[in-house]
């Protein structure tokens, strides 16, 4: 422990965090108590102003999204909509957080990366004060999610984007269940765990899903010992996605409808039964998902990228990224927000059509089948959040056809990435904006990869086998069948080497 003039610090939700230490002695095991003996200086600096007063406790509450009303709710209430039926948002006490300056928060968050002290080894909970500041550590349900790789896509930029050299892919799919949904689900399930300990009327947690949400919900619920209920559209998700909630012991309902139909049903069911709604209508999940934006800033040593491109389905994620960047601006960690791009499949593109109309007269669409199945959503719950994020970040919306997204995914794979079709959608958006000169060759650009490529093996096999009707599959790479004989093998190898030499 660093030796500084200090007072003893009790780390719970009534106190501010300790200052970032120069040498932490961390424990490899989760402590049996929430008390951690740390040191904290009595004087803090904020904008070159010294204060010896005790900082107020950090708090958060639900408020109506983008509304000037005084309506608010405790996070310990079970509520999903405002009194007018609108979306809710989690609002933090920014004034309390401003008791510490941006340099302090940057140092604190950086000091926790890669540590094993519970729960700060998680990429989400390393930023606990910005997420759920009042939850006890013992109530947190975490698989040490986050801290995902920021992949330098230099070769993809050289081959496909005329030498674009400052291109990065944020691999959010390198997580416990293989998608970015873990970032939000750890927060939601942790809060439900707290509610159940408070004897709130919650028997289980339910969601409608196109695959990744159900995987995350079932895993984190299983870790917490909380029953999970999953509504899936029959025959519309990959086998790899289906097996996860089954393996984690969820009660799975396969319904003869699409995601939007599943979503309508789960909302009706959770109004009648003591099942907590886990879809992105619930603003708790966005608090976890926003930490990916803060993580990107950390990985660039707190330099802000020019562009961040995000696949969009139910549209909570684009707002979550905006919220993470905006919070860092408001608290002085950085001085600006990157421009955001939301990328949609042309087969499920209500936001794109709304953007093209000049943000007038939004209308849901009937989503058609797409290889980017997790964003096959025609009536997104978070449409208002997405529009707000894009309008406040000078954002853009683009779309990708099925052939475009599959080609982009496969081109990325051939440069060392192994990404999902949704990442292909985002890469297509990047390529179109580069072609039009909107994104410059030297612009620092981050493409968000939302799920692991192993969740979509059948789509990849069909592509490389040229088994997709009407698709050329320009980057297909099928196995070569050859007799198990020396001469036959030598012949095909010599042909191959002559092409690549």
UniProtKB/TrEMBL annotation:
Pfam families: PALP. It is found in: Plastid, Chloroplast. The modification N6-(pyridoxal phosphate)lysine is found at residue 181. Residues 1-26, 40-59 are annotated as: Disordered. Residues 144-450 form the Tryptophan synthase beta chain-like PALP domain. SUPFAM superfamilies: Tryptophan synthase beta subunit-like PLP-dependent enzymes. Keywords: Allosteric enzyme, Amino-acid biosynthesis, Chloroplast, Lyase, Plastid, Pyridoxal phosphate, S-adenosyl-L-methionine, Threonine biosynthesis, Transit peptide. Residues 40-53 have a biased composition (Low complexity). Pathway: Amino-acid biosynthesis; L-threonine biosynthesis; L-threonine from L-aspartate: step 5/5. It comes from the Eukaryota. One of its GO terms (biological process) is threonine biosynthetic process. InterPro entries: Cys_Synth/Cystath_Beta-Synth (IPR050214), Ser/Thr_deHydtase_PyrdxlP-BS (IPR000634), Thr_synthase-like (IPR004450), TrpB-like_PALP (IPR001926), TrpB-like_PALP_sf (IPR036052). It is an enzyme of class 4 (lyase). Its EC number is 4.2.3.1. Its cofactor is pyridoxal 5'-phosphate. One of its GO terms (cellular component) is chloroplast. Catalyzes the gamma-elimination of phosphate from L-phosphohomoserine and the beta-addition of water to produce L-threonine. Homodimer. This is threonine synthase.
């Amino acid at each position: 422990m660093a030796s500084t003039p200090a007072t003893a610090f009790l780390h719970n939700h009534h106190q501010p965090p300790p200052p970032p230490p120069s040498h932490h002695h961390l424990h490899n095991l989760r402590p049996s108590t929430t008390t951690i003996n740390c040191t904290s200086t009595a004087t803090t600096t904020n904008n070159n102003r010294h204060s010896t007063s005790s900082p107020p406790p950090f708090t958060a509450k639900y408020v109506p999204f983008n509304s000037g009303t005084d309506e608010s709710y405790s996070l310990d209430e079970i509520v999903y909509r405002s009194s007018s039926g609108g979306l809710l948002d989690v609002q933090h006490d920014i004034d309390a957080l401003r008791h510490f300056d941006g340099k302090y928060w940057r140092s604190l968050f950086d000091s926790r990366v890669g540590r094993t002290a519970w729960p700060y080894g998680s990429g989400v909970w390393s930023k606990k004060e910005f997420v759920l500041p009042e939850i006890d550590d013992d109530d947190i349900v975490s698989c040490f999610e986050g801290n995902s790789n920021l992949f330098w896509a230099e070769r993809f930029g050289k081959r496909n984007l005329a030498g674009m050299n400052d291109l990065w892919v944020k691999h959010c799919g390198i997580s416990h269940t293989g998608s970015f949904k873990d970032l939000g689900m750890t927060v939601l399930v942790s809060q439900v765990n707290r509610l159940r300990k408070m004897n709130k009327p919650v028997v289980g947690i339910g969601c409608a899903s196109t695959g990744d949400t159900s995987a995350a919900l079932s895993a984190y619920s299983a870790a917490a010992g909380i029953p999970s209920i999953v509504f899936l559209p029959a025959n519309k998700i990959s086998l790899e996605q289906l097996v996860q909630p089954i393996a984690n012991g969820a009660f799975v309902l396969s319904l003869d409808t699409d995601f939007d139909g599943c979503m309508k049903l789960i909302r009706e069911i959770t109004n009648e039964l003591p099942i907590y709604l886990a879809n992105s209508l619930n603003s708790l999940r966005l608090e976890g998902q926003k930490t990916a934006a803060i993580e990107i800033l950390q990985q660039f040593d707190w330099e802000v990228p020019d562009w961040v491109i995000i696949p969009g389905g139910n549209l909570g994620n684009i707002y979550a990224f905006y919220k993470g960047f905006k919070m860092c601006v408001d608290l002085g960690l950085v001085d600006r927000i990157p421009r955001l791009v939301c990328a949609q499949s042309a087969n499920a593109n209500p936001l794109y059509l709304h953007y093209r109309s000049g943000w007038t007269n939004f209308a849901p669409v009937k989503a058609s089948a797409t290889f980017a199945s997790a964003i096959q959503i025609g009536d997104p719950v978070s449409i208002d959040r997405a529009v707000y994020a894009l309008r406040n970040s000078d954002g853009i919306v683009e779309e990708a056809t099925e052939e475009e997204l599959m080609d982009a995914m496969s081109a990325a794979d051939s440069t060392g990435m192994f990404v999902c079709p949704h990442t292909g959608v985002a890469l297509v958006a990047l390529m179109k904006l580069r072609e039009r000169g909107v994104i410059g060759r030297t612009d620092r650009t981050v493409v968000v990869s939302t799920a692991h490529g192993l969740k979509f093996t059948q789509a990849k096999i069909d592509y490389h086998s040229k088994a997709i009707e009407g698709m050329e599959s320009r980057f297909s790479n099928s196995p070569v069948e050859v007799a198990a004989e020396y001469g036959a093998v030598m012949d095909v190898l010599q042909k191959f080497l002559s092409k690549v030499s």
